[in-house]
Automatic annotation (TrEMBL):
Presence of the UniProt keyword Membrane in the record: yes
Annotated PANTHER family: CYTOCHROME P450 (PTHR47943:SF6), CYTOCHROME P450 93A3-LIKE (PTHR47943)
Keyword vocabulary terms for this entry: Heme, Iron, Membrane, Metal-binding, Monooxygenase, Oxidoreductase
Organism in which the protein naturally occurs: Solanum commersonii (Commerson's wild potato)
Family annotation (Gene3D superfamilies): Cytochrome P450
GO molecular function list: heme binding; iron ion binding; monooxygenase activity; oxidoreductase activity, acting on paired donors, with incorporation or reduction of molecular oxygen
Subcellular location: Membrane
Pfam family, one: p450
GO cellular component: membrane
Cofactor names: heme
PROSITE patterns: CYTOCHROME_P450
Task of the protein: May have a role in maturation, such as during flavor formation or other metabolite production specific to aging tissues.
CDD domains: CYP71-like (cd11072)
Protein's name in the database: Cytochrome P450
Amino acid sequence: MTLIWAILVVALSVYALYELLNIHKRQRDPPGSTRLPILGHLHLLGKNPHKDLQKLAKKHGPIMYVQLGLVPTIVASSIDAAEKVLKTYDHIFANRPHHEASQHLAYGQKNLVFAKYDVYWRNIRKLCTVHLLSNQKIHSFQSMRKQQVELLIQSLKKEARDRVVANLSTNITSLNVNMTCLMVFGKKYMDEDLDKRGFKAIVQDVVHLSATPNLGDFFPFLGAIDLQGITRKLKDLSKVFDEFLEKIIDEHVNPHEHKQNKDFVDTMMDIMQSGEAKFQFDRRHIKAILFVSAMDTTASSTEWILTKLLRHPQVMKKLQKELQQVVGLDRMVEESDLENLNYLDMVVKEGLRLHPVAPLFYHESMEDCVVDGFHVQKGSRIIINCYAIHRDPNVWPEPEKFLPERFVGSSVDFRGRDFQLLPFGSGRRSCPGMQLAVTIVRLVVAQLVHCFEWELPNGIQPCDLDIDEKFGIVTCREKPLLAIPTYRLKK
Ligand code: HEM
């Protein structure tokens, strides 16, 4: 009898050990639809992939497998899935996938956004957060922002006097381009002749080309062949940009005037000369970091929030009431007012929830691992679909509705702790420009709503104002936002 028990125990132990060692066999691939040969699931994604992936996730679950061409991809579409990717396994998923465009535009993925997760990334992330995007540095540009916003208000006042339709999209983009150039380069480049087209047009070309689906991103072996001619165009553009950045750096080597406020180039030149960076930090790195990719995010977020306010006049009125109480009609909004504008804070949160300008963000797995029992192979692309999370009815009641009041008494914030609201991501690769972006978005929305009443042109009813999206590196409005301003301050 004892012998039988002994054999049984040994057999069970061997089986348990076998199961333990064979753990890999028990792991399943995440669920997904049937894939086509070669294309995988690419045919299921249209011009708004965040919405297509949201629909697929409703069918297959919050951790789902799609194969984009030859690239195995895991899509995370719920709070829990996002927390797993961005917190529990952040150390494994913090890499960025290969991005064909950034190879040519960002000096071989040397820009912080596209850099691989390694010592180089750690170094430049630290340089950027400590020296360029710190609260102190952001604060040092406060008077510049005030001046630029005032210029916009003056120009809109003229349009208000003439009762003409204002193009809010171009006005907001120009304001952001100007503010970014002043902060980064120390002067405006809007009207500068850059390749006979102008700075703004070149930046828009870069954004457009970077967002154009590139076969090389889905079929890596096609990257070198460049069937679509995208790489050739990107190389031409990056040459123009490179000459422009070289000229700016030269101007900063021997500045004509003594500057009180150091722009980003000055700061990086100081870092280069001091040897503070823990690696060979040279002009190439300065240029890669300077590569201006951030300004459209802030402009588009502002545009979306104004769109929502124009579609919901009662929310606009409530915000104007708050501004009237806190600021009064005798003056414009100051940055110091922002902390007292609670309803504005809720309006901004709700706008970023419904229209995150980066609805999908992309990571890459650096190791084989298991998430919720699903096997994720090394080198898989990981997509976090924050659009789907922000509209999950299990988390947000009536998720499609613009209801800033849903944040009353709620501590939910977008700083990366709350996985139901992730417009800026969370974890190692989260947005280091969040504080700057939020300051600008709040200031510009508050100023435009405080200084003007807004009316839609051609008798368009608020509920008929279009909300069509154009997906890209930044998901913006498809059509420009047009409205007629009436000045409402006393002076
Ligand atoms: C990364 C959103 C403005 C610089 C990101 C990510 C998101 C995001 C979702 C990716 C997170 C991830 O992959 O996990 C936004 C939004 C903005 C904004 C919604 C405006 C409303 C800015 C600004 C700057 C900036 C103003 C800089 C001046 C960056 C950089 C990264 C990044 C450098 C890459 C960080 C890394 O990979 O380590 N942003 N961003 N962003 N953002 Fe922003």
